[in-house]
Amino acid sequence: MNPPRHPGARSAGRRRIARPSRRAEARAQRLMPGELAWYATGRFYLDNDNRLADFGYFLHLSGIDAPLFDGAQSDTTAHFTFAARPFEAGSVVNGALSLGLDPVGEFSVYLQREPAASFDDPASFAQGECIATLRRTGLVVGTTVEQGIGPAQTPLLASNVFSAWLLESRAFEFGGRRYDLAQILGAGVTQFGTAAATSAPVPAGYKLAVPFTGSALALGPK
109-130, pLDDT tens digit by residue? Predict the structure, then answer.
């Protein structure tokens, strides 16, 4: 004979674990100040009118719990891309250091549900849904280290650091979950960048295409 069961035993056995609320999920996604926000890679393009702009894609975007690529990682399979507004940069030379002076400017983050970007077409990184726009907080000084003397100097490596405020963001669905970069990044990011010393293949309408990578840290709550 089976022992008697408590009246609530059956219902307890069927009880489902409650799913976290959207507010709880948003808190879990939120980054602490100084926590890694993203890894990105792209190219600086100098057009025929001597205007600079950077375009590229995200290798990692903290808080997004789904594959960022439709296949192998590359520019043509990336779901999350970025594109900057073109700007004119100044310059200063100090011996073997060549300094690029980038003014305040904006760049946007895009969700491409059907990846369509390519380094052969810089404008293709600005397609899809614009999910965030950020603005550099001030002058950005990029440093290129050169070797050699006088006209024989050749570039070795370039780097820069900048902070950017998050101006606006739009909530979006991806991989079955809802996200908002404002809830993840907070006020914005500080990015550390490293660029190559030589140009990649240059598409029509441009004079230079320099590859770079960027690692960004979240600024935290506003």
Answer: 999 999 999 999 999 999 999 9
